[in-house]
TrEMBL record:
Alphabetized Pfam families for the sequence: Metallophos_2
Domain of life: Bacteria
PANTHER family: BLL5683 PROTEIN (PTHR42850:SF2), METALLOPHOSPHOESTERASE (PTHR42850)
Family: Belongs to the metallophosphoesterase superfamily. YfcE family.
Organism in which the protein naturally occurs: Derxia gummosa DSM 723
Annotated GO CC locations: cytoplasm
UniProt domain Calcineurin-like phosphoesterase: residue ranges: 1-209
Classification via CDD domains: MPP_superfamily
Record-given protein name: Metallophosphoesterase family protein
Molecular function (Gene Ontology), one example: phosphatase activity
Length: 246
């Protein structure tokens, strides 16, 4: 079974549509959505409706910190650009959409796989995995052999052997990587809706559960249109669009 794993869509309809179409062309039959469906982008209602439809069709979804904030459940402060977007977003969501987001779980275990937005040691704390120390902490906090995380907007893969040493590398888009059963793995697919590595192409990952092959993907999309929608919505201050279409 080929699974498309998408995260940090951030209300970016153009990026989400492009990644879903790309994954379908490559044979994906299942979807895992790792949260942050809203925030920053201008199409929160459309994106949440699409996520709801995918979940209804069998997809797995978890909540992100922006989703929690949009429904009033996040107690930690957000950055000024994020808060402006969230204040605008709340007014765009219907009650049904807000209730759907609020009801999403923090993590989902699926056999040897764990799906979570930020990390495995405190899924509701939304601390970042910034390097091998945090990656190791997350892998040691779960029995899952492979953890898929969002929250970090750049693709990365970490692995840990029996010696407990954690190593990191940046995956090559389009190049299949075998996730050996002899190691523990932590995969960050990168952001679908707001990559932050200087490349505006959307990120997602494909995982083949039969072969154990992981392939990260970069998908070009109409990022000028997505940025124009944010400007038209009126909640973006100068600099807020630096990660869209640069």
């Amino acid at each position: 079974m080929m699974t498309a794993i998408l995260t940090d869509i951030h209300a970016n309809r153009e990026a989400f549509e492009a990644c879903l179409a790309h994954a379908e062309r490559l044979g994906a039959t299942r979807h895992v959505l790792l949260g942050d469906f809203v925030g920053y982008g201008a199409d929160p209602g459309w994106v949440v409706d699409k996520v709801m439809a995918l979940v209804e069709a069998g997809a797995t979804a978890v909540i992100g910190n922006h989703d929690l904030a949009a429904t009033g459940g996040l107690r930690t402060p957000m950055s000024a650009p994020a808060q402006r977007a969230l204040d605008w977003t709340r007014a765009q969501l219907t009650l049904a959409q807000s209730e759907f987001l609020a009801a999403l779980p923090y993590e989902v275990e699926d056999g040897p796989l764990l799906y979570v937005h930020a990390n495995a040691w405190k899924p509701d704390g939304f601390e970042y995995i910034d390097g091998v120390v945090e990656a190791g902490r997350s892998m040691r906090a779960t029995k899952a052999r492979i953890t898929f995380c969002g929250h970090v907007h750049q693709p990365a893969v970490y692995h840990m052997g029996i010696n407990q040493r954690v190593e990191h590398f940046a995956p090559i888009p389009g190049s299949a990587l075998p996730l050996s059963a002899a190691r523990r793995w932590l995969v960050l697919p990168g952001s679908c809706g707001q990559p932050r590595d200087g490349n505006p192409a959307a990120c997602y990952a494909l995982f083949d559960e039969v072969t154990g092959l992981l392939t990260t993907q970069r998908v070009p999309y109409d990022h000028p249109a997505a940025a124009a929608k944010v400007r038209a919505a009126g909640f973006a201050a100068p600099g807020d669009l630096s990660a869209i279409g640069r």
